[in-house]
Amino acid sequence: MSRSSKVAIQAGASEWEELGPGLSRQILGWDNQIIMVKVKFDKGIVAAQHSHFHTQTTFCHSGKFEFTIDGKKQVIAAGDGLYIAPNLVHGAKCLEAGVVLDVFSPVREDFLDGSKPSYLSGDK
Fold it and tell me: What is the pTM of this model?
């Protein structure tokens, strides 16, 4: 079954979904193959180590984040990006409040059904 979001999703017209204290997301577009999600972090918020079968790319729109990917630490700031291969264990700590843009392929079905991300509970 083929399905997708609207072609254009204005940031002001799409609601932020609260995931927990200091963390929220806004889904900006998706189909069966890909999903783009804006995620807002307060300083100090930690996305616990986790893994998933999706390919992930992340663009740092604002703030500063320390990612740990496959045991290696990498700090990114506004304008930086990173790539996370499927099934690699990764997590992040927000060093300065900010926003990242995450793109996953294939689509994160768990995001569309409203499930909370596994990294909030620390599950892998």
Answer: 0.86
